[in-house]
Prior knowledge:
Radius of gyration: 21 Å
Strand order of the largest sheet: 3-4-5-2-6-7-1-8
Shape: globular
Number of helices: 11
Helix content: 25-40%
Strand content: 15-25%
Largest sheet: 8 strands, mixed
Number of strands: 8
Number of domains: 1
Low-confidence stretches: 231-243
CATH class: Alpha Beta
Distance between the termini: 76 Å
CATH architecture: 3-Layer(aba) Sandwich
Amino acid sequence: MPSATADDLLYAADPVLWAREVLGYHPDLWQADLLRSRSKKIILNCSRQSGKSTTCAALGLHESIYRHPSFGLVVAPSQDQSGELMMKFDEFRSAVELPSDYLSTDTKLAVRFSNGNRFIARPGSEKSARSFSAVTLLLEDEASRVLDDLYNSVRPMLAVSNGRHVLMSTPFGKRGHFFRLWNEQRDLWEWYEIPAEMCPRISPEFLAEEKRTNPWFEQEYHCVFMETNDSVFTFEQVAATVSNEVEPLLIEVPEW
């Protein structure tokens, strides 16, 4: 680590101050709350273009610099998507004055700092992600489209490190772990619901046009989990057929 200064102590304690003064990034109110949160489990249900990936890239860089040990891992449905968050991470890193020997590895998808901290982006493959351990910050981007197999395989990486898990996404139908967690287990997570109206960079005029022309408007901008196109029955209709009060029907099979 570079020699600590008075500013470094302030920046380590307050990632929002650091983001504003060092990165030139001025987070919205909910983004500031996210940067300051120390919750172990965070789920973000956000409008498109609300800035969720940008905020998590800033969070990952702050932890890489000011927390030790730190291992940030980004997973997403594809390498392009995880690489997009990594690109934001690198853009922010270029704004930070670091000693020339502060990085020991620097590629498009992996950064290793001289103090041993790492930040890595992986594609949406269960096989390519499950080899890591002791992850302290797991960032799952576009979580509504991440396969359940990948989600199930990366969760154990947090067991020993007692690491943090941040899921961020716009909805993609009533399916998968992102919908299940939001719909059934939200009370176990620190949760954020951010419709487009909470993003000052999205104009009312643009939203008005999208509302008229985009059939996915409620999903893309208002965080609504819509029925999937191939569903014969709605999620609520299927859920209504299940009851814990009915005893299972046991049929005795005769012995021959």
